[in-house]
Structures are given as structure tokens and as C-alpha cells.
Amino acid sequence: MFIKNLSYFNFRNLIDGNLEFDKKFNLFLGKNGQGKTSVLESIYFTITGQSFRTKNIKDIIKYEKLKLATYLEYEDKFSEKNIAIKTISNKKEYFYNKKKVTYDEYLGRLNVISFIPEDINLIIGSPMNRRNFFDYEISQGNTSYYIHLKNYNKILKIRNTFFKNKDFSEIFEIYNQKFFEEIVEIVTMRYEYIKKISILLNLNYRKLFDNKSELILTYKNSFGDITKLNKNQIMKKLLEYYKKIKDKEKKYGYSLIGPQKDDFLFLLNGKEAKSFSSQGEKKSIIFALKISEIDMLIKEKSETPIFLIDDISSYFDSIRKESIIKYFENREIQLFLSSTDDLGINSKKFKIFKGDVNG
Ligand SMILES: Nc1ncnc2c1ncn2[C@@H]1O[C@H](COP(=O)(O)OP(=O)(O)OP(=O)(O)O)[C@@H](O)[C@H]1O
Ligand SMILES: [Mg+2]
């Protein structure tokens, strides 16, 4: 699928406007601080309802203003559609084909993958960075994952209040049962996703950057290795683990088990990337990961996602940059790039100066 045009109102420093896009390559050019990242962010925000820079949606509303709105028209393989978001402070309203919808109904209509300098945190940052990232990515292709996760988080909160109140009555046991069921669903989906994407990741890393390396992504489940286990066996393993930590949970007063304790590791040539890989290698690992998500989304949705790359020149040397451009030239994917200098590629160019975008 591809985006035809985008309108924005009160978005960061951008002067309100409407942009018509090319089906394939779109390049945003400008000096530092002019609004390049903001344009990419406005696309990402319209598709996902989130920013790739901040958790606080108020940050993206233009200084001194209270409201923000974006509107986007796109085409999938069936027809032309549109989506829109209106925001007042932290409250968001979602629209699909001009009708108001819930976030659950909005999510995943259009898919986007972004690559921004801060993504390096996926390797060097805390496990929470990785969990948030994979949760969102799995949800994009699989709404059922998102629903399980939402249920789980609700139950987790309630379960923790039982601990706080030291209430271990029958109702606690009922919640516990539901809690375990949701854990099994979530870890199974996480495991399946990582297994698939790890294979693609290795292939893409080798193809794009270094054909002699081996890159593996592993899923570190909080209650042990679940490789090759079915759901019943996972439940058995979970309950065995629970027996061991049950008393500790009561003593500490919160849940010590569940997906909020999981982590994901990148191993380049058998060594953990976080501690051993160079800066360039880390960026390349994340890039290969994002490219692999394209293939995952195509498999799950049979549609191509939109791809955003912010500040491409600051990431890669010219050889890696060329290899990336070539990759996109050979694929039917709409790409949005930002850069401080012209990349000499065949694309629609937008010049940005003080928030004014001209294409
Ligand atoms: N909510 C906001 N309202 C108005 N302006 C903002 C807001 N948030 C950030 N800005 C400003 O918008 C400007 C553009 O920021 P942006 O990150 O898009 O620039 P950029 O072109 O990507 O720059 P760089 O090349 O340095 O990455 C900055 O000067 C920033 O301070
Ligand atoms: Mg920027």
C-alpha cells in the first residue's frame, strides 16, 4: 500500500499544510532543526497514534496550542481509504473513512516501519525498550496479540492489588488462572514471532551488510526455555516455576512472573551485540531487523508497509547507504527518507525550511 497525501495541523514546528507523495521514493531535505524528523513523525503518528520520539503526545502539539490533527489518504490493493487523528492534550480521537473508530479498530489498517537514530536503544537500552518494540510489531500484524496483551496488563494490575491487600481468597485464584492463561498465549506468540523473524534477520543482515556474519535474535522467557513446547507443556512449565516463586511473590507484594519480565537478545557471531558490537554494526543490526519486519508484515497481511528512514546520512557510510537504496529500488515499497544533503537518488524531493515543506 502507499500514502497518497497527508495534511497536518499544529504538528510540532510544521507550518500547517498538505503534501502529495510519490508512490515510491520521497526525500525530505533540510538543514538541522528545520522539521525533517517532524514530517516523518507526523506520518508515523497518523498511522499508529504514537510518536517514535516521545510517549507524551502533548509534546508533538505545536508550542502554545492545545489541539492537533492529521489526515492521510492511502491506497491498498482494494481501494482508496483515509484515516485521521484529532488530539486535544493527551486525548486522541481516531477516524477511518471519516467515521469515528476505537483504537483497536484503527490499529493495523495501514502499517509502518520506522528507522530513526534513537532506535539504537533497542540494543543498548533496557529490556523494556525491546518488549515495547516487539509488542507493537507483533500487534501490527496480529490484532489478537494486542488483545491478549491488553487483557494481560489489566489482570496484572488487579493481581498486584491483591498482593498489596494481602488478599489471597478464592477470587485471587480465579484471577491467577486467567493470568496464567494469558501468559501462555503471549509467550507462545512472542516465541513464534521471534523464531520467524530471527531467520529473516540473519538473511537480511548477510545480504545487506556482511555475508560472513551470523546474526541470531533470541527470546529470553522469564520462566525458562520453551523451545518446541506446545501450549499445554508451556502451562505445565509455568505452573512449576510458579510453585517456586509463589511465596516470594507474596513476600515482595507484586508479580514476579509474566511477559513483563521477558527479554530479547541479539547475538552477532555468537556474542551479545549490546556488549561486543561496534556502533556501525549495531545500527546495521537494527536496520536489518526493520527490513525483516517488512517481510513479516507482507506474510501476515499480504500488503507492503510504509517505510521511514530518518537522517540516513548520519547512520551509514556510503557503501552501506548504497546497499540500502538498492534494496528499496528493487522492491515495491513506499519509502520516506530524510537527510541534510541530497542523496542523488531518483525521488520526489521536499525542501524544508523553518517548518515550511515544499515539494
Ligand atoms: N511541539 C513543538 N512545537 C513547535 N516546535 C517544536 C516542537 N517540538 C519541537 N519543535 C522544534 O521543531 C524544530 C524541528 O525539529 P526536527 O527534529 O523536526 O528537526 P530536523 O530537521 O529533524 O533536525 P535535525 O537535522 O537536527 O535532526 C526544532 O527546532 C524543535 O525545537
Ligand atoms: Mg531530525
UniProtKB/TrEMBL annotation:
One of its GO terms (biological process) is DNA synthesis involved in DNA repair. The keyword DNA damage applies. Its main location: cytoplasm. Residues 2-341 form the RecF/RecN/SMC N-terminal domain. GO terms for cellular component: cytoplasm. ATP binds at G30, K31, N32, G33, Q34, G35, K36, T37. It comes from the Bacteria. It is found in: Cytoplasm. GO terms for molecular function: ATP binding; single-stranded DNA binding. Transmembrane segments: none annotated. Pfam families: SMC_N (PF02463). PROSITE patterns: RECF_1 (PS00617). Keywords: ATP-binding, Cytoplasm, DNA damage, DNA repair, DNA replication, DNA-binding, Nucleotide-binding, SOS response. The keyword Acyltransferase does not apply. HAMAP family: RecF (MF_00365). NCBIfam families: recf. The RecF protein is involved in DNA metabolism; it is required for DNA replication and normal SOS inducibility. RecF binds preferentially to single-stranded, linear DNA. It also seems to bind ATP. Belongs to the RecF family. This is DNA replication and repair protein RecF. It comes from Hypnocyclicus thermotrophus. The gene is recF.
